[in-house]
Amino acid sequence: MNFNTIFFNEFGRVRSGWRFAAFVISFFITTIVILGAAVAVLSALPAGFTPDSLTSFVLQFGISFAVVMFFGWLYGRIFEDLPFRALGFWLTKGWFLNLVLGLIIGAVSLALAVLIAYVFGGLTFSRNDSAGMAAMLLTLGTTLVIFTFGAAFEEAFLRGYALQTFSRAKLAVFGTILTSMIFASLHNANPGANPFSWFNTFLAGIWLAVAYFKTRDLWFPFGIHLTWNWFQGAIFGISVSGLDRLAPAPLMRAADSGPAWLTGGNYGLEGGIACTAALVISTALIYFLPISKPSEEMIAFSSEEKPIDLENKIQT
């Protein structure tokens, strides 16, 4: 075997596995340093900041999103000669329609999971009479901000450069499975996580990857991800991946009578089979229905690698 083929492909570019590794390692090291410094500074200020406050979620997701977008652009430019808009979080053709479509599908998919759990007697709902309107509006607003940053980061990290660089190397299926496994494993530390919740979150990773490939931008999966979380926590009052303190005053209160294999128990819907069914149905509909299609430019950015232009690199 030629030693160069270990690191470079037939197009003269660094292989996708090395690109992925550089991206992930750079992201984690940089994020740990910046986030650690930010937390230290804010904790020293007389503003009442604590690492487990709601503000800390926005800080963590905001910094992580900025870092992941930077390295996604940087390595896309260095390794593959791609512009920033190739990542999919840019005002490219059809972006707004894809965002709106994603927001609708995310809400409908979550409602389907809720309906399944409700029909089989696992969940019941009542109006939240214990919290005032001001508290519920505050919850709607704060959770919208938190889930917006959270969804933006997770999509940019996993369905952004990580998945896309494998797709350009004709390894889309491998990239989808790998990033979905990472997506599921990132939630393992959440309260109440178990093998079933890992499996459902893995399915959710495939669901969101299929959404990405449907439009080849991140607006569509971002919209899906955002409203699934927001409706689950702030509207229906269900724990979001084990986290129930993010929405202290939801519009409705959910009563879970089990069984946990149906409703997910304390972890929320992602830990039960109602979620599994909804994800499978939603993924199939996204894949088969002619609801949207990517632009030719975004297909070109994400479908193949271009041979390295040595002459142009030397000149520039």
Give a brief outline of the structure.
The chain has helices at residues 4-7, 16-44, 54-80, 95-119, 133-168, 172-185, 195-215, 219-235, 260-263, 273-288, 296-303, 310-315, and strands spanning 123-127, 252-256. By secondary structure, it is mainly alpha-helical.
Describe this structure in words.
With 316 residues, the protein is mainly α. It has one domain (91-315). Helix content is 66%, strand content 3%. The chain is built from twelve helices and two strands. A two-stranded antiparallel ribbon has the order 1-2.
- Coarse shape: globular
The tally of structural domains comes to: 1
SS summary, helix count: 12
The pLDDT mean sits at 93
Number of extended strands? 2
Gyration radius, in Å:
21 Å
**Structural class assignment:** mainly alpha
H/E series, N to C? Answer: HHHHEHHHHEHHHH
Strand line-up of the largest beta sheet: 1-2
Distance between the termini: 32 Å
Percentage beta strand: under 5%
Helix content: 55-70%
Largest sheet: 2 strands, antiparallel
Low-confidence segments, ≥5 residues, pLDDT <50? none
Features:
single chain; 316 residues; mainly alpha; two-stranded antiparallel sheet; 12 helices; 3% strand; globular
Question: What's the topology here?
Answer:
Layout: H1 4-7, H2 16-44, H3 54-80, H4 95-119, E1 123-127, H5 133-168, H6 172-185, H7 195-215, H8 219-235, E2 252-256, H9 260-263, H10 273-288, H11 296-303, H12 310-315
Antiparallel strand pairs: 1-2
Helix pairs in contact: 2-3, 2-5, 3-5, 4-8, 4-10, 5-6, 5-8, 6-7, 7-8, 7-10
